[in-house]
Amino acid sequence: MEKSVATLDKGTICSSWNYCGQRLATGLIDGTIAIFDTSDPASSFFTSTYKFKVNEGSIVKVVWVPPENGDAIACICSNGSLLIWEEIAEVESEPVRWKQCKSFGGSLDQVIDCQFGNSITSLKLTIAYSNGNVKVYEILDPMELKDWQLQAEFQNVTDAVTKCGKALCSSASISWSPHRSESRPASFVLGFTSDTPQLNSPKVWEFDQDHQRWLPVAELAEPGDNGDEVYAVAWAPNIGRPFELIAVATSKGISIWQMASNPDPDGRLSIEKVMTFPCHDNKVWQMEWDMSGMTLATTGSDGRVRLWQSNLNGVWHEQAVIEPIT
After folding, report:
1. Given 1, 68, 73, 209, which residue has the most CB atoms within 10 angstroms?
2. pTM for the complete prediction?
3. How far is the C-alpha of 156 from the C-alpha of 173, rounded, in Å?
4. Do both 128 and 215 map to the same domain?
């Protein structure tokens, strides 16, 4: 039986659950952020507890900071700025409030996507810009969200010598590897929708600890893809698989890629496209894996949410379709 868990404000255009699913942040077209909480831990209904204006334009994306860094969110605004807000109580007797602690980008350096990633040593933040550049920031003190340091800046190309010049990018999608251990380097996958084919195809970037630099270790594309525009990427959690799974959405549909967990002698990770299936009538907006990495949820311009699973033979199929409520 269907059950409502929250009543969102009119004009809500994006949302994000925190890592334990106990808080919901939503972004509105008027530049307002709303935070939803539940008063009873046993209840599954959420009500709005905080609202604050962060920008004169609309909020196009909101994402929670990992929980070990406190209660904080990052939001991308329609003017290209990225703002980080944290929940604080400056005086113990006073109620908590939300305060902006950091901003990135703007009208001349527009942010089109961002994603947090945790390594053993620090919290990291990958930001993709409309000019095709990628920046990775890190913060060494987990409780000082205003003190970000630029760790690296590069373009999403496999050849370090190649420079694409100034590109025009309308969107990007970043997904960090969910794994966090001393034996696994920090890594993420990134793809663009742009006028520059070399930037578009999804690349897996891995941090080389010995040389303190980010290196492209795999390109999730086949020779005939011709730099297809990438709408979304999603890296699956791995519970016992000898390989990684990454989903990539383009105009051709959704592709599931297998990637080796260990590099070859040249430092590259072998890849294989195991399945491509059409999804949604026009464009995929977002993809998310469940905690086990066994079910992929997708949503797109047809207004539906689709759930995809693989059978015991490794064949992917549509498990369920959730229709929009009219």
Report:
1. 73
2. 0.92
3. 12
4. yes
